[in-house]
Amino acid sequence: MSTGQKNFPTEINPLLHNKLMPPRLNANIIRRENLFSRLDEGLSRKLITMIAPTGFGKTTLAGMWIASREVASAWVTLDQNDNDATRFWTYVSSALRSLNPAIGRTTLSMLAASQSLSFQPLLTPLINDLARLSKTSVLVLEDFHFINSKEILEGVSFLTQHLPAPLHLLLITRTDPDLPLALLRVRDEITEIDAADLRFDEKETENFMRQETRLDLSALAISQIWEKTEGWIAGLRLIALSLRNKRQAADVDNLIKSFSGRDRYVADYLIGEVFKSQPEPVQSFLLKTSFFNRLTGSLCDAITDANHGSVMLEQLERDNLFLGQLERRQNQTWYRYNPMFAESIQYLARQRLAEADIQELFQKASHWYEYHGLLDEAVETSLSANLYDRAITLIEKFIEIHDLSEMNTLQRWMEKIPQPAILLHPIICFTYAQVILYSTDRFAPATATRIEPFLGAAESRWRTEEEQDRLGQLLSFRGNVQWWQGDFLKAFQYAHRSLAELPEYDVFWRGNSLLIISYEALQAGRIRDAQDYVLEARALLGAAQNLFGVLAALQLLSEIFYWQGELEQAEQLNQQILTQAVGDESMLDDQGIAMLNLAHIAYERNDLEQAEQHAGRALELGQQRANEMLWVQATIRLADIHSAKDDLLGATQLLKSLNLKIQNPALLRGIQNAQALFSTRLKDLSSLEWWAEMVSGEDQTILHLQEEREMLTLARLRIGEGRIDEVIDLLREWREDAVQNGRVRSQVEVLCLEALAYFQVSNLAEAIHLLSEALTIGQAKGFRRLFLDEGKRMAVLLQASLPKLPSRSLSLFVSTLLHSFSPEATSHLIAANSAVQIEPLSPQELRVLRLLVAGLSNADIAQELVLSTNTIKTHVKSIYRKLNVNSREETREVAKELRLL
Fold this sequence. Notes:
901 residues; Rossmann fold; 6 domains; 48 helices; 5% strand; disordered N terminus
């Protein structure tokens, strides 16, 4: 504590309540009925703007109008520190509660949950609350020119667009707000008041000058004053203050003649004269308090080491010395200086006071704010005076309370502190590293480089001090950094190391590390282990109320279900992710991955149109977020779809264009595997020897699932070349591995390749045996493309297996598959064999079939699918024909037998 620190009563609520107070009106004000009428018109529109430079009476006019009308109001005075979405909407929601305490509860709860949310889900419950207002109300956002956050401006635009009829928004600003004003003008939803409207006319100037100076000024003097000031209210007040001590006509004339409203130095000169005319105690008080935006008696006492702060503020207000009173709250009255006046006095203060004395003023104010629970104001005050050690201590307390909920604020604070000072404080280093990762491009190598000095400093300090808990958190976070950089092996190592350090009660960081380890198990092909890890991770992250972690767990769980062949469960999880991933821009990654997973599922079911739609959206999001992994995987899936539509050239071109843009070696290897796969389908085998040699070599860095994909592509190449002996043992090993570790999809794929290999050497009995096993699992799990992607050779084998399959169900399934091959693959088979009975159902027919089997009538199905009843009848007839049935009961039986649903 610095010298002179007082014992202050602690305020529990951390909001700075004087920001929610409208200005108290002076008794001596000029009523402006013409502008009141303009503002009254605004009550028939959504938005009112007052746009003018400082000193034009915007705030006073708004306060006068509201006080003179039967409208409820909520008021927020903004400053440059409110460009944090969490802080901004907390103040706005808190202000709106003055209209009705029930307003904003949900929104405030969401803001307090430390989750980064986009404006739409955040503001929707608030707008719904406001719709229940029974009285015409106005929300005033004063000094809106300080707001430049794109995220906040988008939210205000959304609020304005959906503003309920009882509420109107009034923006007081020095500059045009970055809002869709043109659209509001076209719709006649805005009332605009500018500097030209706010200027006093000559009559108003006369009334003001006579009221303020108590001088009998001539008509000529009034006219000259009006011409000099051009009706600028602040200029009029400056002249009025200077004229108070001028009783001689000559002095009055000289002062008026010397004034120029266009001269930017005149305001400082006149305020200097006003300042110099004050007694020394008042001058000292002004010099010491002018640096602070809002003042109350006890704060002034702390700053000045005196006990007459309240008396002095009251005196300055009575003298109309550019000090306005805000509302009283909890036995405290708050005031604020006119910004122009404060800036001028600050200029004088920096000339007259030593820098160390000014720093001490800020330090005293910082301690006052801290004691009253206003940590953010305490930090801002410390940073204003470059009191970095003090600011760091306060930021550590702020982090302990708020964690990363106000990330933009933390980033702004830390960017003001020299890096050497930050590196001495491990908590600040660790927090700053997290802020950097989550607020910039987490995929860029430059981001990891920027983070490393802070992580290195924190890790070194915590190792020296044997802070195992903190060290575990840092190692877990390092895993995140490497994850986003695409270095999964390092991420896995950090996750394992972190779990050895983290205590059981640290649910978030343990959940975070388990999430990484579950991905390691998944990529190692150990599906059952992955499922165990991810379920534990989801439980821990849910307990930590971390939405991002829960969504990541759901993504991994959906991939696990996909490999297990539980496509419906995987689909449900991804739909759930799309519903919940509605936060900030980083949640576009979650949306993109969910879209990609849905594309995989639709592709397996041979719903190519749906797969293409989902994969296309995933690609857009991957490119938008510079998420190379998502970008590559979505492009490969789109190439698969092109290939499935017999556009192998288009598929190859897609991958070739991708090859030129991606630099990550692991991703390039995946692209090369996809290209090799398409080359085998094109029978372009001679060009793949370099690739075959590459994938056959030892590589300790390749992940197990990637190795499996490469080995199965290599098996296709060798089967195409007729080198069957080289692949039989290889495929058997991979099948055993898939069975042992629960990779059902891999099991079916390997069985198909084994069947094709035996079929190639005319061992039809073994081929059909293996194929029957694959068909049994594939039918039960809904796999289609695993068979179809093998092309003509698989079509021939399926045709040959039809008479020898063990059940009618499998025969029908094979018939359905055969009708789903491209005409080029099966036209000769279909023409030569009448055993093919089932044509494939279109996606729309499958939707109708599901509802039909569920017992809905044609009319109900039409209503559910938003189609006409006649269209539904046409679909039902087509389904009957394709399934060779005549009733709903038969349809139900065949659908069940074929597992079409």
